[in-house]
Structure formats: structure tokens, C-alpha cells
Amino acid sequence: MSVAVRFAPSPTGLLHVGNVRLALVNWLFARKAGGNFLLRLDDTDEERSKPEYAEGIERDLTWLGLTWDRFARESDRYGRYDEVAAALKASGRLYPCYETPEELNLKRASLVSQGRPPIYDRAALRLSDADRARLESEGRTPHWRFKLEHTPVEWTDLVRGPVHFEGSALSDPVLIREDGRPLYTLTSVVDDADLAITHVIRGEDHVANTAVQIQIFQAVGGAVPVFAHLPLLTDATGQGLSKRLGSLSVASLREEEGIEPMALASLLAKLGTSDAIEPRLTLDELVAEFDIAKVSRATPKFDPEELLRLNARILHLLPFERVAGELAALGLDDADAAFWEAVRPNLSRVAEARDWWAVTHAPVAPVADDPAFLAEAAALLPEEPWDLSTWGTWTGAVKARTGRKGKDLFLPLRRALTGRDHGPELKNLLPLIGRTRAQKRLAGETA
Ligand code: GLU
């Protein structure tokens, strides 16, 4: 049996780091097992689902390199859900209920005030045909609940180990709304069964759903998949990350924070696992290192500062070809490997390359506070062509002539050539600045 997993976001908002971590873990699991990865849009909530969010999900996954082998959209499958619902009604596993939301709230509040769990009391099961006819003649339309078996539900979770629920401790879930629309608890099972999903890997907020859904799998005759429930990411203070937290959306990490896809993937693949977080330049490396058994039950904390540090470490390793597109998008069309290799050790984000481009390719106001020394140095500038050895040759000559060394030698040259006290190694920058500009800057001219 070949492994099949799915990532099933609802297109009701932007993907944030927590959602995309689940996409990544599913994808790594599939690739590791030589199985396949399905992207399924859970878009039956028609009021809240939006095409732009669906597009955003595809854009975010594509940016990360999480390609999908299969694609499904729940809103294409209403006919199939109706068919399954009809069969469940016929077998008595789905039963009509007529309580209004207010009535249900009252029931729940009363149970809670008695210190009892708010489990639906199955009053609707005791209605006679005549009761139902009367309620319907009063204009009520039923919603439909799934009748759980009051037996134990057990599974061996790939993250949580053995899990046990008593059916009697769970509320019969509503699977069909009053307007006839099927709900996620049902649609997800029908899809997982029809699309032969072998492993459901999702957040631990779904553990109780799993107990219910296992019984639904059994009722619809689907093979029950293996489950893995991962602890959800929290922020540094232990608060959950809400889907609406725009700043942690993948889109804002990419577009506003300048995060590289492999920085995010390197972090999210290892967060909450027994592996150390290290920069990885390819998803293949993460596949090779992946093992769901490494996922711990402890709550993983997502720290944006850690992500930015990892981003910097990734940039310091990335070859020019991997950033050429991004540099061109910044308007640095002529940037080449020499420029990239000169500046990347000083970057946390690719966009910061613009600052160094301005130093090598645009006029700079030099800081020239020792004109006599700078003039001596300028006179010793070698003829072009310049390469990575030019800086050493030149400063060797300046040192011999002036007797200066260390900071006294290098800092005035750096300040004159770049206008700044710190930056990439001058060995790398000097050939990019070129002789004409260098000479003018050493003379105190903006060039
Ligand atoms: N659409 C559901 C969610 O986003 C999917 C959960 C699942 O993986 O079954 O929470």
C-alpha cells in the first residue's frame, strides 16, 4: 500500500507558520516514504472561503517548494457528500435534530452549571414521527447528527502513542447543517476515504475530532488511516498562533520580512523535534533527515528572531544562482556572483544587498578625515585589472610607505572607500568599487 497524505487548509485566511509547518511535515513524510501528497481545499464554509486565500495557499506552498501530486476541492464534491449522507440517514446513523442554537446553548449551560460535560442529550432520538411532523409544520428544518457508538475508540498515534476515548464521553457531532450543507467532520472523512489517504498528520486541536471521525470512517466503510497529531506552535510566551495573526503569515514573512523559503523550511522541519535546527539549502536534505518519530510531544515555540538568524545563516551559504532572481527583482540587474559573494556575509535579508550595491555602484560621500594619509594611499593604488589580491597588494604597499598597521591603516581606508565604519571585506569590495571611484573617494570626493 503506498503512502498518501494530505494537507487540508480552509481557504478562510492567510497561511501562517503553524499551518505551513503541517504542510511541510506532511510533504516530508510523503517524500520520505516515496508516497504522494494531496493538497485539499476545505472550502465548504462558503461564507468565509475566498478565492484569494486559495490562491495564497498555492502561492505559499509553491514558494516553499511543497509541490502537490494531487489536488482536490471540497466544494467540487457536494454530490458525493449528499450520497454518503443519504446512506447514513438510511442506516440510522444520521438523525434529524430540531433544537435552535439558543436551545442548545441553554442545554449546555445547564449541564456545565451542574458540573457535567456538555454532551448532547440525544433528545432528538426520542422524537416520534408525529413530533417531527409537528416541528416541521412549525417551520423548523432539521440539522443532522451522527449517532456515535458508546464503545471505546482507540488508536496508536504516531506522536502521542496510544490514545483512548470513550464514545459515551463524546457529543454526537452535527454533520449536516440546517441548510443541508455538510460539515468538515463528515467531508474530511469522505475525502480521506475516497482518496485513499493512509496517514492523517495534523494539529493536536483535532484529537477529539479523530475519535469521532474514526467511527465515521467505520460507518462509511472507509479504511481508517494512521493518525499523527502534532503539538501546535506557540509564540515565545506560550500563546497559540491564531490564523489571523497577519505578521506570522507566510506572505508577510516572504514579502515584508525577507525570509528565504529554505530558512522557513529549515526551522519548521525541526522545531519541536529531537534534531538541532541547522541551515539546510535543499528540501532533499530535510527529507533525508525527517522521521516523524523525532517529533516530540512538548509544545514548540516559534521565535521570529530565531527565524531571522537562520535566514542570515542561509544567505551566507546560498550560491549566487539561488538569489539572482531576487537581486534582479530588487533592481540590481547587473549583480553578479562576485558582488553576491562579497556582500552575503553581511546580510540578514537579501534586500539589504541594496545598501552594498549603493556602495559599489553609486556615488558615496566618503569619510575622509586624514587627507594626507589618504593621498599617499591613493598614489599607491595599483593599475587595473583588479582582483581579490589587489587589496592585499595595495595595503601592503601603503603599510610599507606609511608605517601604519592594523586599525590605523584599515579604518581610514574603509571610511573613505565606503563612507562607513563596517561592512563586507574590502578585499571583495575594492574590485567592485573600481579604480576611478576609489581614487576620487580617497580624495574626499563623492563618487
Ligand atoms: N480544514 C481543516 C483545518 O484546517 C483540516 C484538518 C484536517 O487536517 O483534517 O483545520
Automatic annotation (TrEMBL):
Domain Aminoacyl-tRNA synthetase class I anticodon-binding: 370-443
Domain Glutamyl/glutaminyl-tRNA synthetase class Ib catalytic as annotated: residue spans: 3-307
Catalytic reaction list: tRNA(Glu) + L-glutamate + ATP = L-glutamyl-tRNA(Glu) + AMP + diphosphate
An example Gene Ontology molecular-function term: zinc ion binding
Documented EC number(s): 6.1.1.17
Superkingdom of origin organism: Bacteria
Top-tier EC class: ligase
Span of the annotated motif 'KMSKS' region: 240-244
Places the protein is found: Cytoplasm
Keyword annotations of the record: Aminoacyl-tRNA synthetase, ATP-binding, Cytoplasm, Ligase, Nucleotide-binding, Protein biosynthesis
Record: residues binding ATP: K243
Biological process annotations from GO: glutamyl-tRNA aminoacylation
Entry function: Catalyzes the attachment of glutamate to tRNA(Glu) in a two-step reaction: glutamate is first activated by ATP to form Glu-AMP and then transferred to the acceptor end of tRNA(Glu).
Family statement: Belongs to the class-I aminoacyl-tRNA synthetase family. Glutamate--tRNA ligase type 1 subfamily.
Protein's recorded name: Glutamate--tRNA ligase
Gene this protein is translated from: gltX
